[in-house]
Every structure is written in C-alpha cells, then in structure tokens.
Amino acid sequence: MAFTKKTVRDIDVSGKKVLMRVDFNVPLKDGVVTDDTRIRAAIPTITYLKEQGAGIILMSHLGRPKGDGPEPELTLKPAADKLAELTGYDIKFVDDTYGEKAAEACAAVEPGDILVLENVRFLKAEKKNDPEIAKKLASYADIFVLDAFGTAHRAQGSVVGPAAYIPAVAGFLLEKEVDTLTSIFADPARPFVAIVGGSKVSSKIGVLDHLIDSADTLIIGGGMAYTFFLAKGYTVGTSLQEPDWVEAAGKMLEKAEAKGVKILLPIDNVVTDHFGEDAVGEVVDSDRIPDDRMGMDIGPKTEALYAEAIAGAATIFWNGPMGVFEIDQFAHGTKVVAEAVAANEACTSIIGGGDSVAAVNKFDLADKMSWISTGGGASMELVEGKALPGVEALLDA
Length: 397
Ligand code: ADP
Ligand code: MG
Fold this sequence. Notes:
The chain has 2 domains: 8-173, Rossmann fold, CATH 3.40.50.1260; 180-383, Rossmann fold, CATH 3.40.50. 36% of the residues lie in helices and 16% in strands. The protein contains 15 helices and 17 strands. The protein has helices at 37-51, 77-87, 100-107, 124-127, 131-138, 157-160, 172-186, 205-214, 225-231, 246-259, 300-311, 332-343, 354-362, 376-383, 389-392, and strands spanning 17-21, 28-29, 32-33, 55-59, 92-93, 114-116, 143-146, 168-170, 192-196, 217-220, 262-264, 268-272, 282-285, 294-298, 315-319, 348-351, 371-372. It has a 6-stranded parallel sheet with strand order 5-6-4-1-7-8. It starts with 16 loop residues before the first strand and ends in a 5-residue tail after the last helix. 50% of the residues are buried. Magnesium ion (MG) is lined by residues 353-355.
C-alpha cells in the first residue's frame, strides 16, 4: 500500500515557515541525551526543509511532565543541543511553547533557520487537544509537518491540532514508517513469517489477529506462549499465564487453522524455580513443565525450529522477545531468533516494539534489519490494522 497522504515533497515550502512535530522524546541522564536514535530519524526531513529554504520550527514532547508548567529536568534543550551536534546546523532554542516569548521567537525565524520550542507537554491542554493550543501553534507557521511517528497514534494538540488551521503534510520518517508497516499486510513477499513474543497475550491480541490475516507462518514465543499452552491443554507450572485469555488464545489457534496459517509454538522451554538474576535454567519439553517451574525462554529444539522457519522467509515481521532477555541466562532464544533474522539477508525484515528493538540493539544486529520502527505504540496500532489520528489529519495525496 502506498502512503496516501501528502508529504513535504508535495507542497512548496521554500520561503515558508514550517512548524514540524517531531519525536524528540529521548532518554536523558544528567541533562545529556543517552540515545539519539529518534533525533537522527528526524534529520532527513529537517535537512530537506532547510535545503528548500523553509524556516523551521520544531516541537516535541519529552518524558511525562505533570502539565502544570516548566519542569527543568524535562526541557528539550538537550535534544536541541544534540540536533546541533549531529547536523552541524545552528539550532536556536526558546524556553517557551505557547506564550509571548515563543510567538516572538517564531516571528523572527528566517528561511533556513531552525528553532526548537520547549516541551509541548508542559501544559496539560496539549494532551487534551484543546483548540486554543492548536490555534496558537498554527499561528506560528504557514505549513504543518508531522514527522513524529512515535506519537502519531495520539490525537493530541501538537500532533493533530494545527492540521485544522494550516496545510498539513507528512515528513519522510512518518511516510516510511507507515508505508513499511502497512505494506507488509497489503502485498508481502511470501512466505511471510511473523514472530510474536513478549509478555502477554492480552496486550497483543489485535496484533496476533491481524497477523493471522496475512502471514503464512506465525511463530509464538515469550511469556504469551504459556497461555497458548493452556489453550492446548498443557499445564504450565508457575509460568506467566492469563487464565482470562485462554479462550481468546484458543480462538486464535482455530482461526489460524481455518486460514491455513501455520502456528509454531515452543516444543521445549528453559524453566526455573523463581524469577531473578540468579535463577538457574533447565530445559524441559512443553508438555512436561513441572508444577513448581516457570518458563523463561524457548529451548534449543525450539530455537532450531524457529531459525529454520526464519531462514525460509521472504518477509519477516517481529515483535516481542522470545524470553526474559533482560536476564542473560534467558536471552539465548531471543538472540538466536535475532541472529536468524539477521542472517536471512534476502528477506525484508521489520522489527517493531520497544523491547524487541532493545533486544536487537543489545545483540548489535540493528544494521542487519531492513527496518526498525522508531515507534512502539504507534507501530503496534498499525500492525493491529488501525489508522493513526496524526496521519488521518493530513492532506490526502
Ligand atoms: P515489545 O516491547 O517488543 O512489544 P513486550 O513489551 O510485549 O515486547 O514484552 C517484553 C517483555 O516480555 C520483556 O520484558 C520480557 O522480559 C518479557 N518476557 C518474555 N518472555 C517472558 C516469559 N517467558 N516470562 C515472563 N516475561 C517474559
Ligand atoms: Mg514492551
């Protein structure tokens, strides 16, 4: 599916003032950005706008301010400094978002300038999509650009608001994310192998449901596998389990069978007696999990089975680790799966979800993947087949 909204390419921005919502919600430690992935992801659009001669005003949220006014530890200044460092551009910053000071700074923006506004969430009204906020922001510029994929699923003032007052188009990151994460459902190269893990069936039911509609094989791992085991009549000991979701898991298995989608569940597991850094694992088959043991990772036979399925894939979508990868002795299954995806160089591999992306980074395999989504919640909503409010608000192509 092609992206169906206008982008910065479809509108004349030269000599115009452009207000762009980016996702600079980066982790900070002692006032320094510790992971600049999201800032880097916004640079192609910023550079394009600058080269076209637009005056650029950037805005973002950062962290979770209370919304009662400025909170010094959540200022966007460090993100603005990081942008300057990464691009070599002169980046201006104003410690205001909706007041006179911000309005004056925006009025002074000349073609080629880049100004960063203060954290949009220092005011509660932003999250509520208050029309006053939207009008104020729109008054700063001629054109609105949304490139904040990570918040595009939120109908908030700085995400959807300005689109009601000035022409609104997508930036390159938003376009690429939406295009990538929707095209796998429209016309994937086959076989399409989807891998879903993580902790809970309940948080992934929409994802599983939509994947069964288009994948050829669905690989299941992580804590959610145990609720599927219950649906198959196995006992799961003290493993993570959601009794209220056993029926839903059973329905997924039935749906997959009816559609001819192959489901792979763990055939063996690494289990232990308690959850902790010092826990010791042992391998047991899936139909023999002792009553006092919990599953923490997929076992070696499962690793081999999953790696083989992954090796034969032409398209791969992966969300959710195969085990408790934060603890080294239970990270092996996730690592083997990540390595198998990385080794299949001919396939299109798309990774989404906060912890899955963290796992791929931990194993240093990020550059072997075709696309790593920058948005956790937003990418999951696309994979569930939902439309994103931020995208909906943009001009149709
Ligand atoms: P993502 O962020 O990629 O969408 P999730 O948030 O759904 O992934 O799941 C990640 C979490 O699942 C990790 O914190 C991991 O420790 C946990 N997890 C994986 N396997 C198990 C398991 N067998 N038991 C308990 N937790 C698990
Ligand atoms: Mg997560």
